[in-house]
Amino acid sequence: MDLPEPLSSPVHVAPMAGGPSTPALVVAAARSGHFAQLAAGYRTPEELAAQIAVVRAATDRFGVNLFAPNPVPIEDDAYDHYRASLGVDGLPDKREDDDAWADKVALLLDDPVPVVSFTFGLPDADLVWEFRRRGTVTMQTVTNRDEALAAAERGVDVLVVQGEAAGGHSAVLDPAADPLWQPLPDLVRSVAGAVEVPVIAAGGIGSASDVEAVRLAGAGAAMVGTLVLRTPEAGTGQTHREALVDPVFDRTALTRAFTGRPARSLVNRFVREHEDAPLGYPALHHLTKPLRAAAAAAGDAQSLHLWAGRSWRAAVDAPVADVLEALLT
Questions:
Q1: In a 3-state reduction of DSSP, which class is residue 65?
Q2: CA dihedral in degrees (30, 36, 39, 44; nearest 10)?
Q3: pLDDT of residue 70
Q4: Separation between Cα atoms, residue 167 and residue 205, nearest integer Å
Q5: Which of 161, 104, 111, 102 is nearest to 136 (CA)?
Q6: Rounded distance, CA 283 to CA 57, Å?
Q7: What is the pLDDT of residue 194?
Q8: What's the mean per-residue pLDDT of the chain?
Q9: Residue 158: its pLDDT value, please?
Q10: Torsion of CA 208, 212, 215, 220, to 10 degrees
Q11: Partner residues linked to 222 by β-bridges
């Protein structure tokens, strides 16, 4: 099925929370005829509003991604045990929150943007309708056929089908279950054959042949994230950028060590030392945040969350317009 406007470009840039998805990245993608989104995750509503204003002044071809609440509570004893295992004094007490969900939703309903997408959890059907009533196209990230059917029932306009090779957090709705490995074109066929909404394929895409394969399988577009982490427009930290080309890092793995939710990272010392990290999101995200900030400031790649998909070696230091255009040749 054809993608609605403004999504009708063959290549999209994934929203990447924590810094990489800058207004500059979103605008550069739009100006080159592609589509990208701001990542609302971990930003305050005020920060999000400011980023939207910057992008809106340059283009009307953009979206905003929200972390839909789907908490994974952790017992106090398990939290304290993991905190102690990190071997650092002064780490924070347990904090559970919903990433200011209600305030961010209110912002986007009061001042609608072209596209809103949801990750981690499913929005209520009534909320999807409220966005649609305001002319906002809605998207939902899913990782399997059952999730796709559930999202379609809520009335979303487009599904982003994320394979397990994706870098960063998996969008799996049940964080206790790691995403199952399946070739992305096969996953796309499975979902596209089960729902009557357009799909976009994401996860481990690193070449024009990858884009062609998922589009032949039924995807209206391909979405990339790790591939643009080294572009000058991305807000990727310097230590992360350097790690993506450092031969010391030779594989990726799904880990809960940094946030208590499965996410694909380059395998470093922190990942290896905490292979048995518990589930607990967002509590573990808040717990390790000071450690990650200190690692970034010190240039310590062995203690940093080095989010990366399986095709991380394809990421190049080049303008995002050139990176995306190369996927169409």
A1: strand
A2: 20
A3: 95
A4: 10
A5: 111
A6: 36
A7: 97
A8: 97
A9: 98
A10: 30
A11: 11, 201
Phi, psi of 132 (to 5 degrees): -60, -40
pLDDT tens string 122-159 = 999 999 999 999 999 999 999 999 999 999 999 999 99
CA distance 236 to 131: 31
Q: Return the H-helix or E-strand segment holding 118.
A: strand 115-119
pLDDT tens string 279-309: 999 999 999 999 999 999 999 999 999 999 9
CA of 9: how far to CAs of 4, 35, 62, 327, in Å? 10, 7, 12, 12
pLDDT of residue 329: 84
Q: Taking a C-beta distance cutoff of 8 angstroms, is the pair 173, 145 a contact?
A: no
The tokens of 328 are what? 């169409």
Q: Which helix (H) or strand (E) holds 38?
A: strand 35-39
Helices and strands, counts by H and E, the chain: 12, 11
The reported pTM is 0.97
Q: Where are the beta strands (DSSP E) in 163-292?
A: 168-169, 199-202, 221-224, 252-255, 263-266
Residue with the two structure tokens 């592609």: 34
Structure-token pair, residue 58: 């340059």
Q: What is 127-176 written as a DSSP string?
A: HHHHHHHTT-EEEEEESSHHHHHHHHHHT-SEEEEE-TT-SEE---SSTT
